[in-house]
Specification:
- It is a single chain.
- The chain is an alpha/beta fold.
- It has a single domain (2-266), classed as Ribonuclease Z/Hydroxyacylglutathione hydrolase-like (Metallo-beta-lactamase, Chain A, 4-Layer Sandwich), CATH 3.60.15.10.
- 25% of the residues lie in helices and 26% in strands.
- The protein has eight helices and 15 strands.
- The protein has helices at 40-44, 56-59, 61-76, 87-96, 170-176, 195-201, 206-213, 232-240, and strands at 2-7, 20-23, 27-29, 48-50, 81-85, 117-121, 127-130, 133-139, 147-152, 159-162, 181-187, 221-225, 247-250, 256-258, 264-266.
- Strands 6-5-4-3-2-1-14-15 form an eight-stranded mixed beta sheet.
- β2 (20-23) and β3 form a beta hairpin.
- α7 (206-213) packs across α8.
- The radius of gyration is 18 Å and the shape is globular.
Length: 269
């Protein structure tokens, strides 16, 4: 399985894209601004979107994607894109995005019987099989109902885990104890100088990250995501001072993480 990092920034600026990961070519994990860098034919191959929570930086490309590929998918005879999210997240999308005011309701367009999008509820602990990939819904602790995801390709090469936006989350580490985690994508949205903001907003800072990683067994490749534009060097310097057995990397848009037999990470210009 190849994880293509389309976006991993906490906000936007030149060269910064918000959260979106493409698993192989058919499953999208979150739909931030990085989705727009894909060509139209690649967009049309996306069959599933897994949504971690309802905040704008994670969902804003869902409606635009639907509008872009609706005609091409209809021409190819492909059905609606399945959007998998917590019931609370689906309710937020219906009320605040696909309401005919902010954006048209693509769960009923181009027609009610052949829509561009299908909104499907998920729950923590549920295991999905999408495009040959096994995906488990993980708990997250944020200011709105939220989840993370673990994905594997069935080769026993380990799990790619995305925490989603989360503050300290003991339930996550209890679950990961029983999983072979080879790649962990974990957020660190703020530096230690803003640890109070991190705590209030349900995010991590390097000091909190140290406590979280201490609960992860073994030795994994850890990728830091959701750093704010302009803060990369400062946050990664603080993280570099942490004592951890794990290999810690700064994630960048364009990276491709190979999960399975040929595991590793490669940066693409």
């Amino acid at each position: 399985m190849i994880v293509h990092v389309l976006g991993c920034s906490g906000s936007i600026a030149a060269g910064c894209r918000t959260t979106a990961f493409l698993l192989d070519d058919d499953v999208l994990v979150d739909a931030g601004t990085g989705v727009g860098d894909l060509p139209l034919d690649a967009l049309a191959r996306i069959d599933h979107i897994l949504v971690s929570h309802s905040h704008l930086d994670h969902i804003l490309s869902i409606g635009l994607l639907a509008d872009s590929v609706m005609r091409e998918r209809r021409r190819l005879g492909r059905g609606p894109i399945s959007v998998h999210a917590l019931p609370e997240t689906i309710a937020a999308l219906r009320a605040h995005i696909f309401n005919g005011v902010i954006w048209p309701d693509f769960t009923r367009l181009p027609s009610a019987d052949q829509p561009a999008l299908a909104l499907l509820p998920i729950a923590v602990g549920e295991v999905l099989t999408l495009g040959g990939k096994r995906i488990e819904v993980l708990s997250a602790s944020h200011t709105v109902p939220a989840v993370g995801f673990a994905a594997a390709d069935g080769t026993d090469g380990g799990w790619w885990v995305f925490t989603g936006d989360t503050g300290p989350n003991p339930a996550l580490w209890r679950r990961l104890t029983d999983m072979k985690v080879t790649h962990l994508v974990i957020e660190t949205a703020f530096g230690n100088d803003e640890r109070q903001i991190a705590r209030i907003s349900g995010h991590l800072c390097p000091a909190a990250l140290r406590h979280e990683l201490a609960q992860l067994g073994g030795s994994a490749d850890v990728y830091i995501t959701h750093i704010k534009p302009g803060e990369m060097d400062a946050v990664m310097t603080e993280i570099g001072r942490l004592a951890t057995p794990h290999r810690v990397h700064a994630l960048a848009a364009g990276d491709r993480i190979r999960v399975g037999a040929a595991a590793g990470v490669q940066a693409y210009a």
